[in-house]
Amino acid sequence: METATAPRRVERHETDKGYVPVYTTAVVEQPWDSYSADDHATWSTLYQRQRELLEGRACDEFLKAQDEMGMSAHMIPRFDQLNEVLGAATGWTLVGVEGLLPELDFFDHLANRRFPVTWWIRRPDQIDYIAEPDMFHDLFGHVPLLMNPVFADYMAAYGRGGVKAHAIGPDALQNLTRLYWYTVEFGLINTPDGLRIYGAGIVSSKGESLYSLESDAPNRIGFDLERIMRTRYRIDTFQKTYFVIDSFEQLMQATDPDFTPIYAALEQQTHLPAGDVQDFDHVFHKGTGEGWAEGGDV
Ligand code: PHE
Ligand code: FE
């Protein structure tokens, strides 16, 4: 099938040994004219499918922001056009990248309100699953909430916190990464109409959009900063536990204190398996654990 003519980073990653991440630092211009008809069709298919699924499942802020930014199923959006709307709303700018960045580069971008977006989109045969982030995950999943002033501030604060954690050491960085994972990537939010999704890793996945809200298997537990920073997670299966915030303001307030003493205190604490419920948890739903893989928490 015909795909874009520019080099496709995704193909360099698929070796016999599976997914091998390669980290690059360069910021690239979005090569919009190089997208093929197949690339646009992949965007359209995914956009249409997820939007339909996410009505009543994603939080209103997310859905509203996609419309306000002018994202649609019609074609792959142009980063420069989105930037006009996004810049005016919250001062964030999208920058094109080849893929995953080294941690410190990533934190530095966020701290300066630049969100790195992978410029290429998955191939048609990868519609349902791709191991690494592509444009659909980054743009459809992460970018809309950057239109929300509170969430926009949270992401920038996270970037500054990342620079700090990086200087403190690997344990601090691991604690902070878990927070990102269980909020920015896999967070749920409690609303008067019920639980809704805001995590980018969920909204960009058909299977996990349904599973995170409707399956009896996973735990759904109230947001608790230190609990989250102790909890291992899954990178190869749906999550065993989702954490539920009450509001973006709660997230902002809970993460406002200096984490330095928290990181120090956490060094004395054990790490928690991804699927375990603790007796101090505020449990929305205790998972049945049905279909869970043994081991494999990171
Ligand atoms: N308050 C955190 C610190 O001092 C920074 C942070 C803010 C981290 C928001 C995550 C999210 O390190
Ligand atoms: Fe992501």
UniProtKB/TrEMBL annotation:
GO molecular function per UniProt: phenylalanine 4-monooxygenase activity
Cofactor or coenzyme needed: Fe(2+)
Entry-linked InterPro entries: ArAA_hydroxylase, ArAA_hydroxylase_Fe/CU_BS, ArAA_hydroxylase_sf, Aro-AA_hydroxylase_C_sf, Aromatic-AA_hydroxylase_C, Phe-4-hydroxylase_mono
Residue ranges annotated for the Biopterin-dependent aromatic amino acid hydroxylase family profile domain, each copy included: 1-298
Top-level taxon: Bacteria
Reaction equations catalysed: (6R)-L-erythro-5,6,7,8-tetrahydrobiopterin + L-phenylalanine + O2 = (4aS,6R)-4a-hydroxy-L-erythro-5,6,7,8-tetrahydrobiopterin + L-tyrosine
Family to which this protein belongs: Belongs to the biopterin-dependent aromatic amino acid hydroxylase family.
Name of the protein in question: Phenylalanine-4-hydroxylase
Organism: Stenotrophomonas oahuensis
Gene name of the record: phhA
